[in-house]
Write a structure and sequence with these properties.
The chain is mainly beta. The chain contains no helices and 15 strands.
Length: 183
């Protein structure tokens, strides 16, 4: 597909009343993969239509021969969080490193803070590490306040109080990630 022709002029999401739902963004995941993100959350268990107009073209300039319509149902999607740097179970991590977090979708930044993201040394007894959290969208940084202990395993946890911009709570599947510091 010619990605420049897959745009809000040629793609519409229609609600059950056949009213257009504003599309916030269209991103490409490859030659024939596109992600359509509505400007506001879709209602759960509601049928929608996505409509592809004849202005969409392939890479040879050939337009769709007719308007295509596909039905789908809106659902609540649970966000997932990952520690990207360092990666989960990394070893030899710098004792002064910040941690880079990525979420599967844009998050409500007011729900991501030192109460909902926690860092602790995995020793007996566990030691909670003071942190600051900053970021927006789906990318955040956790910065420990002070230098971490050497050769120590740490656990980063996310609580289910973290929410995406639609109010969906964080997935319980990604609540703990680990790394070990170096000397």
């Amino acid at each position: 597909m010619n990605a420049s022709t897959v745009n809000t002029s040629n793609v519409q999401i229609l609600d059950p009343n056949n009213t257009s739902v504003p599309i916030g963004s269209i991103t490409t995941g490859g030659a024939n993969t596109f992600v359509f993100s509505p400007a506001s959350p879709l209602a759960s268990n509601t049928k929608y239509i996505i409509k592809f107009g004849t202005g969409i073209q392939d890479t040879f300039g050939t337009s769709l021969p007719q308007t295509l319509r596909y039905a789908f149902t809106g659902t609540s999607i649970t966000p997932v969080g990952l520690m990207l740097n360092p990666v989960n179970n990394a070893t030899g991590v710098s004792r002064t490193s910040s941690l880079s977090l990525w979420f599967s979708e844009n998050m409500n930044a007011t729900t991501i803070n030192s109460s909902t993201v926690q860092l602790a040394a995995v020793i007996a007894p566990s030691i909670s590490i003071p942190i600051t959290v900053s970021g927006s969208g789906n990318s955040y940084t956790v910065t420990p306040i002070g230098t971490l202990l050497p050769n120590t395993q740490y656990m980063l946890t996310f609580t289910t109080s973290i929410q995406d911009t639609s109010g969906n709570a964080m997935s319980a599947l990604s609540q703990a990630q680990y790394f070990t510091t170096g000397n």
